[in-house]
Design brief:
3 strands, three-stranded antiparallel beta sheet, alpha+beta, 63 residues
Length: 63
């Protein structure tokens, strides 16, 4: 079983545009190839994460 982490990897069609769009809504992301790397911190609450998800919901296409 993989260890639990605060890291989320997201594959997107245009990484540079996604990083810019995420930043525009206040969510920082790092580009790694064709994926975005998002990291939380122990001081980030579940409510904070849900707010970030709401902010980027229209940016990342659903499967």
């Amino acid at each position: 079983m993989a260890p639990e982490t605060g890291i989320v990897m997201v594959q997107v069609p245009d990484v540079a545009k996604a990083v810019e769009d995420f930043g525009r809504v206040g969510v920082r992301a790092l580009s790694l190839g064709r994926r975005l790397r998002l990291i939380t911190h122990r001081d980030v609450s579940r409510a904070d994460v849900l707010r970030a998800v709401d902010r980027v919901a229209g940016i990342v296409p659903s499967r």
